[in-house]
């Protein structure tokens, strides 16, 4: 995808406006992303929520971890939003406003609440109303979890069914990403041919905004949690988990890094049951970099198109950061689909998603490393503060 983006930049620069005739190849890529977003949101969240069966038995572990996830996710989302408004990566590139786009109107809390409730089970998918799809997914997941209280066989069947469907969806995403280089080539060449070097400057500024936000989370927030809250040496933490950080950086897959993450987390002096229960879930839902990433995209695109997100749009952008971190697949390029979901929810143009995909390897490498780095930290927080089961001597061992 990166090679396709670079070739597209060169071709767009050399050929100029005639290259815009192949833009339809990029549109195909965008349409495919739109096609898979709805099913991916619904099935991935519904499947993840079915783990609620352990809340009653292991409420301390999961309750403590999901509190950590929500707090850190919100902090990360706010960081990305603030940095995007400070650096302003989309300012200077003036693109025509999306056709028919109107700024989100101020709404009362009741209107916001009613807007989350689906009117029927089909309309949210037809309109790609991601927030309503999320509500449907949550209701479905919790219902399946509750069914397990009196019919474990039914629940087991439904969980396996969701897992099988999710595997099919991930394979469809894989196929779409195989086509991605063609679509990205068309979109990047069209970008350069129509807006010139300013478009590349805006993309570069967006990437730098991502990197700075990730660095703040990794080098400021994590040490505050380790040193200020847990009273532990952050340097020792990084010394213990750096194999997982390197693996994540090179594979761009938090799920693929999971075996390494579990191995190095055992050296932190935390109990094995916390590791086994938290890390597989954390690799799927605890993506702090993704939480920061999505609001940056929202602000960046709104700046390029000269539109204001307003209060409701800002709230939705932050919400998509937190929820997107749970909906993002732990595979290379997983954030591209969540970026499309974020643009869809906010009603912003989808074309920049193709630009994001073209350079996503530059975002995905530090993104995945930060996502993985935050997972053992969650285990530490739960073990030391909630379970009171922590081996300090093992943490500081060589």
Give the termini separation: 41 Å
> Mean pLDDT, as a whole number?
82
Largest sheet: none
What percent strand?
under 5%
Low-confidence stretches are none
Helical amount: over 70%
Structural class: mainly alpha
How many β strands by DSSP?
0
Number of helices: 17
Structure commentary:
- Helices cover about 75% and strands about 0% of the residues.
- With about 400 residues, it is mainly α.
- Helix 3 (about 60-85) packs parallel to helix 12 (about 290-305) and helix 9 packs antiparallel against helix 16 (about 360-385).
- The chain is globular and about 65 Å long.
- The two termini are about 40 Å apart.
Task: Indicate the topology.
Blueprint: H1 2-15, H2 23-49, H3 59-87, H4 109-116, H5 123-126, H6 130-147, H7 152-195, H8 197-229, H9 234-251, H10 254-265, H11 272-285, H12 288-304, H13 310-327, H14 334-346, H15 351-358, H16 360-386, H17 392-395
Helix pairs in contact: 1-7, 2-6, 2-7, 2-14, 3-8, 3-11, 3-12, 3-13, 3-16, 6-7, 7-15, 8-12, 8-16, 9-10, 9-16, 10-11, 10-16, 11-16, 12-13, 12-14, 12-16, 13-14
Give descriptors for this structure.
single chain; 398 residues; mainly alpha; 17 helices; globular
What is this structure, in a nutshell?
The protein contains 17 helices and no strands.
């Amino acid at each position: 995808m990166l090679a396709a983006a670079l070739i597209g930049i060169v071709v767009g620069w050399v050929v100029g406006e005639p290259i815009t005739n192949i833009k339809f190849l990029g549109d195909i890529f965008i349409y495919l992303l739109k096609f898979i977003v709805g099913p991916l949101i619904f099935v991935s969240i519904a499947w993840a929520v079915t783990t609620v069966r352990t809340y009653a038995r292991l409420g301390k572990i999961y309750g403590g971890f999901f509190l950590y996830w929500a707090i850190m996710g919100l902090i990360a989302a706010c960081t990305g939003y603030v940095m995007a408004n400070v650096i302003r990566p989309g300012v200077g590139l003036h693109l025509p406003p999306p056709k028919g786009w109107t700024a989100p109107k101020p709404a009362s809390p009741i209107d916001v609440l009613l807007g989350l409730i689906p009117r029927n089970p089909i309309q949210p998918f037809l309109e790609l109303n991601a927030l309503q799809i999320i509500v449907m997914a949550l209701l479905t997941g919790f219902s399946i979890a509750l069914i397990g209280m009196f019919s474990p066989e039914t629940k087991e069947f439904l969980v396996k069914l969701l897992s099988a469907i999710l595997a099919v969806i991930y394979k469809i995403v894989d196929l779409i990403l195989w086509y991605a280089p063609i679509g990205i080539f068309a979109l990047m060449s069209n970008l350069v041919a129509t807006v010139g070097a300013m478009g590349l400057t805006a993309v570069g500024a967006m990437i730098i905004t991502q990197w700075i936000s990730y660095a703040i989370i990794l080098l400021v927030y994590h040490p505050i949690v380790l040193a200020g809250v847990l009273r532990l040496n952050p340097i020792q933490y990084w010394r213990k988990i750096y194999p997982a950080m390197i693996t994540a950086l090179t594979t761009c897959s938090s799920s693929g890094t999971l075996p390494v993450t579990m191995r190095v987390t055992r050296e932190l002096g935390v109990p094995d049951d916390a590791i086994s229960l938290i890390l597989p879930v954390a690799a799927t839902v605890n993506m702090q970099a993704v939480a920061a990433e999505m609001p940056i995209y929202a602000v960046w695109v709104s700046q390029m198109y000269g539109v204001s997100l307003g209060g409701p749009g800002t709230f939705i952008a932050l919400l998509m950061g937190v929820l997107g971190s749970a909906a993002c697949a732990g595979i290379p390029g997983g954030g591209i689909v969540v970026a499309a979901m974020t643009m869809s929810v906010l009603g912003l143009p989808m074309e920049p998603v193709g630009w994001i995909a073209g350079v996503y390897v530059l975002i995905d490498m530090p993104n995945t490393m930060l996502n993985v780095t935050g997972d053992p930290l969650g285990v530490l927080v739960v073990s030391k503060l909630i379970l009171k089961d922590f081996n300090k001597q093992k943490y500081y061992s060589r």
